[in-house]
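To the wet lab folks,

You asked to see what we're planning to order before we commit. Fair enough. Below is the target structure as tokens, and below that is the sequence we designed to fit it. If anything looks off to you, flag it before the synthesis order goes out.
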């Protein structure tokens, strides 16, 4: 579950674009924004002045004496942006645009250089876009991108607070532990919270700061919702000897996932012949699988992905492809023998059934023939008896 709150800090003021966000939450957000670092006052660039596009910008002549006339130049030339005015030695640039930026210098009546300043113009920070992901159940990382191109140097303050507190944590600190989400200089735009708890919720504060002000986003993170393992590693696909339609596939847990009894992974395997567009997919909890419906002699491409065993979070990205070709069909003796035996058994039962049916039909026909001959024999016998002379006739 991800819940977001946003706000922007402009000097001493703070505004929130979300209707109904209470003052308590706003001040909490402001406190979180400053929990790690204060908004930087200096940016390590001497002789640089920053201004906001669309506003009036005033450049002071630091070396001028009060009341002394001064001359302003831009890039060494006397031509200044349209509408510029000089007030008490200061140069005022109305409604400055990005094109107004440049190097300005003020000079005395004799043309001597009194002061020089590099003017950089840009915009206030926008609310950053933030997303978080846990590649294991012990740490999670967040990444962000700016929503506004400010044209100014930008820094980020990244902190977190645990929302679901134990009794001991509540006694120690009502607001829970607030700590830095550690940024890695080698991976700009990301930070990591180490030692997180799988069943806990956290509130992330990503604050974007530039010389004109700051803005932040509050993001509520539930570990179960953002868990997304790294892809499985070591994917190997091998043909199986004497098995033209089979491929043996094996892989390993991602190295970033601690293999513990209570936090297992399940896997999803997809494969297809390289000349086909559609994938076949199977799921398993094992670290190997035998593909039984591959096409003999045709190269196949295979990938595998992982997900928490209890279905928390999301499937990982697919692993790098691995390829293999099943052996060509050269009449596997074992398979052929098994097929012949099966056909023989099937033929035996078919012949036996035909024989039994034939015998039954023959017996029935024979019995029927006997039944038809019985009345005829009886009549012949009766006629024969009737034709015999009686005893009286003989006498």
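Sequence we intend to order:
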């Amino acid at each position: 579950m991800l819940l977001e709150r946003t706000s922007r800090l402009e000097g001493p003021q703070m505004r929130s674009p979300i209707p109904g966000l209470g003052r308590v939450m706003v001040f909490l957000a402001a406190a979180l924004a400053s929990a790690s670092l204060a908004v930087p006052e200096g940016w390590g660039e001497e002789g640089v002045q920053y201004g906001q596009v669309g506003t009036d910008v005033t450049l002071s002549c630091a070396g001028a004496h009060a009341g002394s006339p001064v001359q302003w130049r831009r890039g060494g030339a006397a031509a200044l942006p349209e509408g510029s005015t000089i007030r008490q030695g200061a140069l005022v640039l109305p409604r400055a645009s990005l094109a107004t930026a440049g190097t300005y210098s003020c000079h005395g009546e004799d043309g001597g250089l009194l002061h020089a300043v590099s003017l950089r113009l840009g915009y206030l920070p926008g609310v950053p876009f933030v997303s978080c992901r846990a590649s294991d159940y012990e740490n999670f990382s967040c990444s962000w991108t700016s929503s506004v191109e400010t044209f100014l140097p930008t820094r980020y303050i990244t902190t977190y607070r645990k929302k679901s507190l134990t009794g001991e944590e509540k006694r120690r600190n009502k607001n829970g532990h607030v700590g830095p989400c550690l940024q890695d200089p080698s991976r700009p735009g990301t930070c990591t919270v180490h030692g997180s708890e799988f069943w806990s919720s956290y509130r992330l504060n990503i604050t974007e700061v530039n010389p004109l002000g700051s803005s932040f986003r509050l993001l509520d993170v539930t570990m179960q919702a953002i868990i997304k393992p790294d892809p499985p590693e070591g994917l190997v696909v091998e043909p199986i000897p004497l098995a033209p339609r089979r491929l043996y596939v094996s892989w390993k847990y991602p190295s970033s996932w601690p293999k513990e009894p209570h936090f297992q992974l399940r896997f999803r395997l997809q494969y297809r012949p390289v000349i086909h567009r559609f994938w076949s997919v199977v799921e398993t909890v094992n670290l190997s699988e035998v593909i039984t419906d591959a096409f003999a002699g045709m190269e196949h491409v295979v990938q595998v992905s992982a997900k928490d065993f209890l279905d928390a979070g999301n499937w990982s990205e697919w692993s790098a492809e691995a390829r293999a070709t099943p052996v060509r069909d050269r009449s596997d003796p074992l398979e052929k023998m098994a097929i012949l035996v099966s056909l023989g058994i099937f033929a035996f039962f078919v012949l036996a059934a035909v024989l039994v049916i034939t015998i039954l039909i023959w017996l029935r026909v024979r019995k029927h023939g006997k039944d038809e001959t019985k009345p005829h024999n009886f009549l012949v016998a009766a006629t024969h008896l009737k034709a015999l002379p009686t005893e009286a006739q003989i006498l």
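Structural context that might help your review: The first strand starts at residue 2 and ends at 10. The mean pLDDT is 82.

Thanks,
Computational group
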